[in-house]
Amino acid sequence: MSNNAAIVEISQTAGKFTSSIVLQAESKYIDVKSILGLFTTLVGGHDYELHVHGPDADEAKKAMAEVFAKHNLNVNIVAE
């Protein structure tokens, strides 16, 4: 599996929502709508946390969880 495919799909999926979707990897916070940010962060088998805020947060959390799982990326979606 190419990480590039995961990055593009994560970014495109996030772009469908108005909610703010932020990925926390160690001490970095990345807007997942930013492909460049993902390229520099989504490397290695880190555990990631996803923070979602906004009017469509529930739908966004579900969609993002599916994309991360599809690409075998371990993400913990934080319930705010």
Estimated share of beta-strand residues: 15-25%
Give the strand tally: 4
Please tell me what the overall shape is: globular
Q: Provide the low-confidence segments as ranges.
A: none
Task: Give the class from helix and strand content and strand pairing.
Answer: alpha+beta
Number of structurally distinct domains: 1
Describe this structure in words.
By secondary structure, this protein is α+β, with helices and mostly antiparallel strands. The chain has one domain (3-77): HPr-like (Histidine-containing Protein, Chain: A, 2-Layer Sandwich). Helix content is 42%, strand content 24%. It contains 3 helices and 4 strands. It has helices at 3-15, 35-41, 57-70; strands at residues 20-25, 28-31, 48-53, 75-77. Strands 2-1-3-4 form a 4-stranded mixed beta sheet, covered by helices on one side. Strand 3, helix 3 and strand 4 form a beta-alpha-beta unit. The protein is globular. The termini are far apart. The mean pLDDT is 89.
